[in-house]
User: What shape does this take?
Amino acid sequence: MRTTTNTIKPTPVQKQKNLNEQTETEKLSCTKMALLIGLPLLFFFISLFLGRHFIDPLTVLKILGQKLLSLPLETTWTDTMETVVLRIRMPRAIMAGAVGAGLSISGAAFQGMFHNPLVSPFVLGVSSGAGFGAALAIVMEGSMLMIQLLAFLFGIIAVTITYCTSRIYKTTPILMLVLSGIVVSALFQSLLSLLKYTADTEDKLPAIVFWLMGSMGSVSLENLLPAVASIAAGCLGLLLIRWRFNVLSMGDQEARSMGMNTELLKGIIIVCTTIISSVVVAFCGIIGWVGLVIPHLCRMLVGPDHRVLMPTTLCVGAAYLIFVDNIARIISPAEVPLGILTALVGAPFFMIMLRKTRGGWG
Amino acid sequence: MTAKVSVSSACFSYGEKEVWRDINLNVEKGETICLLGPNGCGKTTLLNCIHGDLALKSGDIYIDGRNIKTMAVTEIARSVGYVFQEHRAPFPYSSLEVVRMGRAPHLGLFQAPSRDDTELARSIMEEMGIGYLAAKRYTNISGGERQLVLIARTLCQQPEMILFDEPTSHLDFKNQALVLRTISRLTRKGLTIIMTSHFPNHAWLLSSRVAMMDNNGFVALGPAEEVMTEENLSETYGVRVKVYEAKDDHKTVNFCTPEFVPTSKGEGVDDD
Assistant: This one.
């Protein structure tokens, strides 16, 4: 027995090798880091000059330089071009980035919290609730602001009901959370169907259906700030506790044995993700797949350690949604709903990944 | 001097169903206690109560003289470690990362382990002879290695006491030996250990104190040599147990095996 363990002691060379491998997973190489930060920025810039009115990149740079950095540049462009770049494309690209980042990090957070790589940010019923809220506002002939407010409100109401239902003996077991999420989703789905059934088929029903498919169309320079600020706040909250996700993903009882107040932590996570996803659904409708696929992709890229994984999902998610939104804008004159495209791009990709990893995640 | 752990007139029930009652147990610092008993007698439940995960129906549990009810999870985690029986990780963390998770009770909510924490985790692994596992994925190592990594993680919490829930279940002979040797090393270092086991022989091997339980509570409590009698073992497990003594040049080894005849008490429930 003694000899067995003595022989498996690592040699100094092995030890050095282990050390290197480990530091590699903790800190990304500079190339990877530059790519991760550069990619969303590149897509952001591309989305400023792509569109039905193509504006050449140089002019876009000049517009940005003059208006945002107050550089003394000669105006060589029309007012329309300026409006298109600064008031239409830029807010939209920023929002797409924020939405992609927010949904992806929420997905990663929930996958860690539920210790299950198959959950999405909508697992607690936020999208069904918000969808119902939006439909209600549309049926009541509410303004855009009204739609957004009700969607946000009902998203939060749905999650609150889920959370309260799952709470037994001062704890919220994961299984209870998932089950109550399914129940609450079903409840709001049927209420939504009821609204659809009774809605005016001329204009209300199409409006509801189109809204549910998701779009960046309603984003403007005016409503950008509150939306992006709340998404950013949620993301920041999740980023701050990102190491704890490693511990939490080992299971509630184990996490408690390592001194973690799992209920407090779950509470923080649910609050952060709910803020993010209800704001997203309120502004852009239901955009599926991003929150499920991106965390997986990132896990393949940088490994499962949430300290690296969470910031990575931010970058990749932002880049992905800006990219898909560009396709949505360009592919046809009548914009293709974003929710359709994210699934259309995401599903085949996920299939390929499933085949490649044979279901053995990452 | 107060006992490390003191359980007094403890009674526990899941709803109406009483698991055990009137359990009294004092564990001194540096002692190893082995809980033996049939499946479903509440060994793990007792561990969970001592760890503060479950609340007693009546009675009290004190750790270092403090009532467990008044201690926060973080406080408990700093002085009591818990190595769980079944384990499954959803994500393929490196073993070093898993060990490092043990630093959690010493870190603030927004903190991540520092270089020092990593070094501590690494040196604990080296000391246990599992340094070679550091970079390996926790999901790809063998059951025995996983158990050792979990013990390393618990040591990373730097506790004074460790609870083990069937640390050798599912393990082959070599791995059982590795785990038991690790446990006896920890005892020599002065850690207090409470473990449950389905292998009565391990109690002799660890020369620990033994608490034998049946479906009501403790049947016997005392040093392995004294309480591990054929009579007590038979009563505990509800099956006739034979105790043997083997001598060679250096030492005497005790061991027991069940006979395949149920005692009157265990008739009909000899197997589960």
Summary: The first helix of chain A runs from residue 2 to 7.
